[in-house]
Amino acid sequence: MKITKVDVYMLDATVQRASRRPIITRVHTDEGLYGDGEAGIALGTGAPAAYGMVKDLARLIIGMDPMNTEQIWHRLFKSSFWGMGGGPVVFAGISALDIALWDIKGKALGVPVYQLLGGKCRDDVRCYASQLQFGWYDKIGPWGKTEDYVKIVEYALSQGYDCVKIDFTQFDRDAKRLPTTVAEGILTRPFINMIDERMGAIRKELGYDFDIIVENHCRTDAISGVMLGELCDKYKVMAYEEPAIPLNPDMHKVIRNKIHTPIASGERIFGTWGFYNFFKQDAVQLIQPDICNCGGLTEGKKICDMAAVFDATVQAHCAGSPISTAAALQLEAAIPNFCIHEHHFRSTQPALTVLCEYDYQPKNGRYGIPNIPGIGQELSQHAIDTALMHDCVDEFWRGL
């Protein structure tokens, strides 16, 4: 079996288009099988760069055997020249193609990808309702009033979730977005009081029989991260996510040494090399690699295995299209050190679910594992027909 061509798409997420443009690749073979993968730079800025990177990398694999995922991964990493420097764009491009190849491999062998990663460790996964400051299902935010934070958490809990995630630093009391500067350095007393009030009201009104993950989106630094981390300890938070930028693992270590709440990070850490320094310093206890930008399923499995050596648990970052969710579920089903799955607010919205054939949603706070061959998901015809951009690569380049 040989790779004959690679389609690259920038999808139209309609009402989410301003912040999300999923980059999807479809790898074709001479036996009629194809596989879909995603470059995990759909949100924020960078989607056009990821689109171009997938196109460039695709030239390196034309004519190769798609079953040789390890060989192809190393070719993409080394023959691209820039791959060995790391970074989100290169790793997202590698990830998209790698996931598509695993999808082909599963289809060719007639098994779900989790079987190829070692088999299932569980039949379903616990998941949490993520980013409630933006809303949940049909209750659209953002939120400002303390009572609104209580209500949206109560709404998620009523659907069977026993864990939620909220960034308490993004919006002021009038639900207006706050600049990152207000969450950096020595925090003002009004800002601390606002967050303390929100977290305290949730615990006072709804109790402690469910978990909270506090999201920071790297808006804080080592100083403010410690100050808010003390509130995490106070309100028995499950994990404290991205309390400092991941470019300096030492700062995560500083925060870890001053609070008791486990540190979570990983969506902006790439490859085993990127995670290694966090592990050896015990700077993160819940890793959150995005399978669509950490190096795909090939590298993602290695990251999770390395995490086990350092007693770290795993929650894949999921904030892209349903392709990214499917890839994450396949890996999370197969690893012993899984902790919890992220179900993002945006993943509940039709703008994203319509882009793929299957609309997998949790039931009572638990996600089933797709059991069809491959990753268990693929692009819908609607997504292809409405794509914002599309290119087809069918010429081989030997690389450097």
Automatic annotation (TrEMBL):
<feature type="domain" description="Mandelate racemase/muconate lactonizing enzyme C-terminal">
    <location>
        <begin position="146"/>
        <end position="262"/>
    </location>
</feature>
<protein>
    <submittedName>
        <fullName>Mandelate racemase/muconate lactonizing enzyme family protein</fullName>
    </submittedName>
</protein>
<dbReference type="InterPro" id="IPR036849">
    <property type="entry name" value="Enolase-like_C_sf"/>
</dbReference>
<dbReference type="GO" id="GO:0016829">
    <property type="term" value="F:lyase activity"/>
</dbReference>
<dbReference type="Pfam" id="PF02746">
    <property type="entry name" value="MR_MLE_N"/>
</dbReference>
<dbReference type="InterPro" id="IPR034593">
    <property type="entry name" value="DgoD-like"/>
</dbReference>
<dbReference type="InterPro" id="IPR013341">
    <property type="entry name" value="Mandelate_racemase_N_dom"/>
</dbReference>
<dbReference type="Pfam" id="PF13378">
    <property type="entry name" value="MR_MLE_C"/>
</dbReference>
<dbReference type="InterPro" id="IPR029017">
    <property type="entry name" value="Enolase-like_N"/>
</dbReference>
<keyword id="KW-0456">Lyase</keyword>
<dbReference type="InterPro" id="IPR013342">
    <property type="entry name" value="Mandelate_racemase_C"/>
</dbReference>
<dbReference type="InterPro" id="IPR029065">
    <property type="entry name" value="Enolase_C-like"/>
</dbReference>
